Amino acid sequence: MTNKDTNPSTTPASSLTDKEREAIAQMPYEEARDKLIQAVQALETGGLNLDQSMRQWEIGEALAKRAQGLLNDVRAKLDQAQAEQAANQATAGTQSNLD
């Protein structure tokens, strides 16, 4: 067994609370995107200590996952609508389309 396996400090705990994670999970895309931009700017500006930097990183990761998940949902809906439209094109203007 290595030190990594026995030392819990090698796997840092998240600094985000369940309440913060839930708030991010409920955010609309635009809010998640805007807060992600703020987190990135805070990291790029510098002046944060290590703990603050890690917290901004974790916030950014959670926000990025939320925004990407919302975009993926929209993409899936668009793909489904396009597939339905393509399927309906074969019968457009025919009697079977009216059934």
TrEMBL record:
One GO MF term attached to the UniProt entry: exodeoxyribonuclease VII activity
Region Disordered, residue ranges: 1-25
Keyword Aminoacyl-tRNA synthetase: no
Reaction catalyzed: Exonucleolytic cleavage in either 5'- to 3'- or 3'- to 5'-direction to yield nucleoside 5'-phosphates
Any GO BP: DNA catabolic process
Domain of life: Bacteria
EC number in record: 3.1.11.6
Bias (Polar residues): 1-16
One Gene Ontology cellular component: cytosol
Keywords: Coiled coil, Cytoplasm, Exonuclease, Hydrolase, Nuclease
Chain segments annotated as coiled-coil in the UniProt record: 64-91
Subcellular location: Cytoplasm
UniProt-listed Pfam families: Exonuc_VII_S
Enzyme class per UniProt: hydrolase
Subunit structure: Heterooligomer composed of large and small subunits.
Role played: Bidirectionally degrades single-stranded DNA into large acid-insoluble oligonucleotides, which are then degraded further into small acid-soluble oligonucleotides.
NCBIfam families the UniProt entry points to: PRK00977.1-3, xseB
PANTHER family noted in UniProt: EXODEOXYRIBONUCLEASE 7 SMALL SUBUNIT
Family: Belongs to the XseB family.
Protein name from the UniProt record: Exodeoxyribonuclease 7 small subunit
Organism: Bifidobacterium myosotis
Gene coding for it: xseB
